[in-house]
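Q: I have 145 residues here and want to know how they pack in 3D. Can you give me a structure?
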Amino acid sequence: MSETTRRYLDNFWELLDDILNAALFVLVGLEVVAVHLDWRFAAVGLLAIPVVLMARLISVAVPGATFHVIGLVPFRRNVLAALTWGGLRGGISIALALSLPPSPERDLLVTAAYFVVAFSVLVQGLTFGRFIKRLFPVRAEAPTD
């Protein structure tokens, strides 16, 4: 495959990904009426955020520690925090919750998914750059004469 063909193919798949993500978020936005703002559902949604973050921490720490112990990958302390905070959740979790058949459990899961995704996009997404800069400060190199 030529380099030009490879570039066009990559551009095609990136464009298709962007279009499908846009369509998904439009559908998610149209389904926002499915979110019940009952205080109990909101409480479950707020409790789901630290649970999801803890699950992400465990899902990153276990393989990371395993790879570190067997010597495949050196695992620095700050990498775990970066991978945990950077594990952004998006429209797929909402799409999966919306695909469930109508039931009281579906309403609860849709609301919890909206809370987790909103936190992920708004808080984690908007603070990730500063979080990484704080975790991995760039050290100025000593000038050479």
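Q: Anything worth noting?
A: DSSP finds five helices and no strands in the chain. The mean pLDDT is 85.
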